[in-house]
Amino acid sequence: MTARLFVTGTGTGVGKTVVARAIAAAWRGRGLRVEALKPVETGVPLMDGNPAPADALALARAAGRVPVAGDLCRVALPDPVSPHLAAARAGVRIDLDQLLAFLRERSAGADAAIAEGAGGLLVPLSDDRLQAELVARLGWPLLVVAPNALGAINATLLTLEAAASRGIPLAGVVLSRTPAADFGNAAAIARHGGVPVLGELPDTPDDDDALAALAEAHLDLDALLERAKAR
């Protein structure tokens, strides 16, 4: 089988890295050869003079790979701002063709590949390109991660609508974190968004084995694998 998945969030800090790590670790636990990548990351510090993209490195560890920053993140930028602004401040331009080549090359041969975007679907990568264009051209099914909180319905439906209008295939939605109350998010998103909510991942420890166990317990991984098959 070949499964490919692009993970986006309804905003910044909604838990998409944790969800992507949990899925990667669970798939690895099922014996799949997993590649987990983050093509663009901002807010990247330097360690020993080299960029150290924390999200990309964490994804690699979850996938069972020895993390090597340059193999996992095509563009690592120091400022913790939108990619287009971080790139401008660094004096570089984010090139979609290079990102596409990076994702296709790095995922070649993997049973399952996960790419995590920077921020939300409509984040600008440059003055004239949104991340949504990268996802549309890549063609991988999109998984939307939203916090299981008040406001998730509207933000998730807007993201799904933006994806559908661009012809991006939709894998579904995962809700992250344990809600303080029942907001009816999952049922409303599934009903109005026309895609499955594939589970709700609770608050999680920072441990890949524990994340894999929680993914097996709380996410419909079989359905996600089926919907992530390359189209």
What does this structure look like?
- This protein has a single domain, classed as 3-Layer(aba) Sandwich (Rossmann fold).
- 42% of the residues lie in helices and 22% in strands.
- The chain has helices spanning 16-29, 54-62, 69-72, 83-90, 96-107, 131-138, 152-165, 185-193, 208-218, 221-227; strands spanning 3-9, 34-37, 40-41, 46-47, 50-51, 75-76, 112-120, 124-126, 129-130, 142-147, 170-176, 197-201.
- The strands form four sheets. It has a six-stranded parallel β-sheet, with helices on both faces. Strands 3-6 form a two-stranded parallel ribbon. Strands 4-5 form a two-stranded antiparallel ribbon.
- Helix 1 (16-29) runs parallel beside helix 2, helix 1 (16-29) packs across helix 9 and helix 5 (96-107) crosses helix 6.
- The longest helix has 14 residues, at 16-29.
- The mean pLDDT is 93.
How is this fold's topology laid out?
Blueprint: E1 3-9, H1 16-29, E2 34-37, E3 40-41, E4 46-47, E5 50-51, H2 54-62, H3 69-72, E6 75-76, H4 83-90, H5 96-107, E7 112-120, E8 124-126, E9 129-130, H6 131-138, E10 142-147, H7 152-165, E11 170-176, H8 185-193, E12 197-201, H9 208-218, H10 221-227
Parallel strand pairs: 1-7, 1-10, 2-7, 3-6, 10-11, 11-12
Antiparallel strand pairs: 4-5, 8-9
Helix pairs in contact: 1-2, 1-9, 5-6, 7-8
